[in-house]
TrEMBL record:
Cellular component GO terms held in the UniProt record: cytoplasm; nucleus
Keyword vocabulary terms for this entry: Hydrolase
MF terms (GO), sorted A to Z: hydrolase activity
Domain spans labelled Serine hydrolase: 2-249
Protein name in UniProt: Serine hydrolase domain-containing protein
Length: 271
């Protein structure tokens, strides 16, 4: 199984390789990983420069749909030159890039197979500008959730700059924010979006989020756009990939499940 891997904004391919190394070591040697840097340089994400040296990259800087779609061209060109890939694994902005890319592909080119057979989303989200640009109405409360969750993510992540050794900056305060405890939110569709079933992503997917991540609902919203076989798992931490052995074992198991779901689908289709 060959995976394309996309990092978060303000990090890099090398950093994502390090962040994911603990669980990737638990996968069979037949699983290979190709890490792709974003095309744009970027300031480091909050706290990243304390642990990792530059350069840092982003796949896009603007929330304008045209700017995001430029990143789709960048991704497609890489796939055309270096593919094919069996699956894609991504974190944070990498998830937003891949999720929007797959949705846009599903809607605008439904007759062409998706370039990946499965996807692993870690601390992800679906870009609202692309959703809206495709004609899906976004309720005002969903916009508020999105805006406030981003603000809370930056505020919480910036705490690492002043954290002392041993501090848990993804602490209980983060878990008790209004974003993480919104009453009457449907966790199967937290943003209340009406998405045509035929537009949804049909490949097997895994969605990993953290209970203390202010962007938790964005990850669950992304899961609601996926109609194929899927598993959703809470790793219990923040907007990161915990290196705990129990977490690494679970993520490795989810990756294996996702790839086996691809095989089951192909067997059912007689491929």
């Amino acid at each position: 199984m060959r995976f394309l891997c996309l990092h978060g904004k303000g990090t890099s391919a090398e950093i994502f390789s390090i962040q994911s190394a603990t669980f990737r070591r638990l996968l069979p040697p037949s699983y290979t990983f190709d890490f792709l840097d974003g095309p744009y340089t970027s300031p480091p994400a909050a706290g990243v420069s304390l642990f990792f040296n530059p350069p840092y990259y982003a796949y896009y800087h603007s929330s304008d749909p045209s700017a995001i779609r430029e990143s789709y061209s960048y991704l497609q060109e890489h796939i055309d030159r270096n593919g094919p890939y069996d699956g894609v694994m991504c974190f944070s902005q990498g998830c937003a890039l891949v999720a929007g890319f797959l949705l846009d592909h599903q809607v605008t080119r439904p007759h062409i197979p998706l370039p990946f057979s499965c996807a692993i989303f870690i601390c992800g989200g679906m870009p609202l500008p692309i959703i809206e640009d495709l004609g899906i109405e976004i309720p005002s409360f969903a916009r508020d959730l999105e805006t406030q969750s981003v603000k809370e993510l930056f505020a919480t992540a910036n705490a690492v700059e002043t954290a002392k050794p041993g501090d848990d900056y993804w602490n209980t305060k983060a878990e008790k924010t209004s974003i993480l405890n919104v009453e009457n939110v449907n966790m199967e569709n937290p943003y209340g979006l009406q998405v045509p079933e035929g537009w949804k992503i049909q490949i097997p997917t895994v969605h990993i989020y953290g209970q203390k991540d202010p962007r938790r609902l964005a990850g669950l919203n992304l899961a609601s756009f996926c109609a194929g076989k899927k598993k959703v798992w809470n790793h219990g931490g923040g907007h990161d990939i915990p290196r705990l052995s129990a977490v690494s074992n679970e993520i490795a198991g989810l990756v294996k499940w996702c790839t086996s779901a691809v095989g089951e689908g192909r067997d059912a289709e007689g491929l």
